[in-house]
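Could you join me in thinking about how sequence relates to backbone shape in a protein? To get us started, please write out a protein record for me. Would you write everything just below, so we can both look at the same thing?
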Amino acid sequence: MRWLKFGIIIVVFFGAVYAVSMTFVDESKNFTLEKEINYPVDKVFPQFNNLQNFTRWNSFFADHKNLSVQYFTPYEGKGSAMSFRDRKDEAVFGDFFIRYENPGQTLKYQLFEGRKNTPYEIDLKFIPEKDKTRIIWYVRTPKQSFLKRSLNLISEDFWVSNIDKSMKNLYQILGNKVNKETQLESLKFDSLMVEQQESQLLLGINVTTKNVKDALFKNIVINHNKVMNYVKMDLGKKEDEYGEPILINDADNYKDKEVSYFYGIPVSKKEAVTDNNFSFRTLKKGTYYVIFYKGNYEGRIRAIQQLLTKAKQDTMRIGDLQQTFLEEPVADNKTVMKLSLPVYK
């Protein structure tokens, strides 16, 4: 009995200490973080006002491998919204909104977690400085009940860690993106070259479709989206973990009324694939005749004919043609690709 009374006294004592200490802790917490990234604001801002871009590098979302995300129109700017849910943990879900946008200068986010009615308020200010951008994060945490107010003591450390990691991810993604843009600007189109290419492992799908008018390109776009969604959503791959999409088919298949092709994404290694529609394919290391092409998708036929003519003149045997999309296939008249024909003696 004595020990029970003693235990009650201890509990009451520490409860009183907690109650007194929490009177000095605010219901919500405000803090400011300032970061700098070595890229101009016109490259940086689209990574923040487009939520599909934002979730690829922000560690709050990108680090959750089991997170399912749904985006709502408009997909960028004021009014953009998304919901998220952990496929394995029912307690993890929420909504994210862009409430205000001043292009290239400011953004206002709201993040609702779980069943909380009060959101995180996140305001961003972008300050251009030559080839750099200074980003100021103003964060206000949700109001906490008296018993949960101690969470505000650790919230700033969590946000600092999250933003630090996110900015490193963003720097890496922008590095890949800007390097790619620089490479595209320096490409010499419609000139036949010889390259030694390394082997690649592709994950993709086999397709057969009609080769009528623009039906082929529309089919490519559909299957591009299928493969990209599987790689990014089901396998949880980030942008720096896969390469440019490649379409593989017979070099003279363009003459046929029906076309069969393999559409795949380069990945670093094989792993378990749960969808039987997807399979792996290896591209061998070797010598390739290459032409970079830009324009209407049907116009690539002339470039393919150049490759085939060169191989015939050099009495070379050929393999399957590889069409690497250097820019995402979206519009038929704006394709940018690398046509590679493997050749052998």
About this structure: Residues 11-25, 146-154 have pLDDT under 50 and may be disordered. The chain has two domains: 26-184, 193-344. DSSP finds eight helices and 16 strands in the chain. The helical segments are 2-22, 41-44, 46-49, 51-57, 59-62, 152-186, 215-234, 300-313.
